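[step 3/7] fold_predict: job queued, chain A
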Amino acid sequence: MPILVHIPTPLRKLTAEAEIVSAEGKTVEEILTHLNRTYPGLDERLRDENGNIRRFINIFLNDEDIRFLQDKATPVKEGDEISILPAIAGG
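[step 4/7] structure written:
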């Protein structure tokens, strides 16, 4: 069963305005790779040239920041949800 991925408003132009899309994979890394194959251009906004998640992008697995789990290697399973959130700067 696919994993549901919540797409932030600024990236929805790449997903035909879809707020939630599905992707397949066993880790966050595999989910991101699947998303890039399905929605070209998304990857360059999420990952840098070395394949690392950009500093200003936060990815949550079931409300937990993956940086505090196993980062891109964090395993995902049926029923999990991933949220992609751009960091918000303010002052």
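[step 5/7] annotate
The radius of gyration is 12 Å.
The helical segments are 28-38, 42-46.
exit 0
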